[in-house]
Amino acid sequence: LNLSGVSAGVTSVIAGFFALMLVSQFVLGAILGAVLEGELTVGEVEFSEDGESLSVKLRQNTISDKNVEVSIKVLYSGDLVLSENIEVSIDKSDGLGDYGEFTIPVSQFYSGNALPNSPYSIEITVDGQVFSRDLASSLVQWPGVQWNGAEVLSRDITTFGGDSLGVVKNDPDRCSGDSENCLVGVIISGWAGLDVGSDSPARAPFANFTFDAVLMEGNDIAVSYPSISVVNSQASWDSNGGEFGTGSGPWGLEGTEFPLEGSILDPNYGKYIPRDEFDSAGDYGCYTLTVTIEQIGHAPQTQSSYYEYSSSNSNDIWSSVSSC
Predict the structure, then answer these.
(1) Residue whose C-alpha is closest to residue 184's, from 253, 266, 64
(2) Which of 109, 195, 272, 319 could disulfide-pair with 74, CB 3.0 to 4.6 Å?
(3) 36 pLDDT higher than 50
């Protein structure tokens, strides 16, 4: 009996078995790796709630954390406004799987209004694949209202102005002389938004600006309203203890107009500025309302409107005129 031959055969079988196991493990690992890692794709592209940053998720199921090289381009009306190469780590997970994330400050690529016809898009190149997204499809949710990316990326005020209405009524406490219905005060309002070629301006909820208004009686200041600061549609100003309303409120959530509140609340007129609180005499004549809007990086802009304060048949009149 030749045991050495049997032993050699057994050894060969065992060696072959282990070789097969190693090859099988390698093939199985490759198959599992391909299945578990899957294809890398671009997931959510989202603005922060304040609109100041844009976050992008890269999604890929992985066996372990991995880093990927990413090329980023942002285009404005087809023109390149940002180009960067970064490394992103696929090291997070949520209910949708594994992902990596990077964030871009909007200030790095903002170049002008998206509305009405100047879209922003982002191109992301990773592992030789190019993904493109129109940023108008990225949304921001505020309580009770939702903004699309075109609204988020329209921050330059292109139309604005001011208006004044007279509060004329029979008020024994404020009327004197022969007037039956007298001018007891004025309502001043401002508006600011985007000129999109329609009858009404579009809202600019992510435009930050300051708004000033001065009502002049001839060469004298009648009302100098405190400067209003607007950030993400929230307006704030010095109310001077209630002389100028509440000192805060939302600008442009329902439209582009904003009331410049006074100290007197009337059920029909709202909060108006009483004539007896004018810094000027408050006499009959021509008044000029000048409003000024200012944004960082832009020169101040000014608009004026004119009003005639007169009387006819014992009734005061506050009417808009073309000039003083």
Answers:
(1) 266
(2) 109
(3) no
